[in-house]
Amino acid sequence: MSGTSAVLGVAAIELGLVLTPGPNMMYLVSRTVSQGRRAGFISLSGVAVGFAVYLVAATAGLTAVFAVVPALYLAVKLAGAAYLVWLAWKTLRPGGLSAFAPSELPADPTRRLFTMGLVTNLLNPKIAILYMALIPQFIVPELGHVWLQSLGLGTVQIIIALSVNGLIVLTAGGIAGFLAGRPLWLRAQRYVTGSVLGAMAVMVASDRARPLPA
């Protein structure tokens, strides 16, 4: 099993990532604000399955594939960076809307809410890099049962991510109501989010980290 330092390290990294505006947060907030908490939690269930997919892939040794075929890892990383650039532009462009701004989005059925939550998480470069390049660095082969260490650390990440995202769904409506009567705050939130997404895109694209075999 993983040591305490490894668990705390993964927990700290994940807490920092989940609190940083990204695709998952934007999708969950926009759906909760436009369609209610039920829609937000259904979307979160799709996000949860996306985490499980990454966890199973990492435990099965997918990181080793990317370590052997670095061009494939580079393609995934650049696709994720491009996705963040698109989200940043969508937020910052003239006439762009904050994720907390009430909008007239059509009500999506349960299946679509779940599917979009899943797809958004699978395309989230923050999660891809976490499982491909960061978590493997906390695995100590000398402790044995590498797959069990990967499973345990991934479970820690999922628990933290779902807990924080669940709180986001619960509070999104209240935050939206607070910002609704404060257009300057809403605009500032939009610019901050867009800027963070753009900075993350640059960091993802320029990051020299490589996946380590698990």
Can you tell me the residue ranges where pLDDT is under 50 for at least 5 consecutive residues? none
Strand runs, count: 0
Number of helices: 9
**Cα-atom Rg, whole angstroms?**
18 Å
Order of helices and strands: HHHHHHHHH
Apparent shape = globular
Report the average pLDDT across residues.
78
Q: What is the structural class?
A: mainly alpha
Terminal CA distance reads 14 Å
What percentage of residues falls in helices of 4 or more residues? over 70%
Largest sheet: none
Q: What amount of the residues lies in strands?
A: under 5%
State the gist of this model.
This protein has helices at residues 4-18, 23-35, 37-59, 62-68, 70-92, 110-122, 125-134, 146-180, 183-206. With 214 residues, it is mainly alpha-helical.
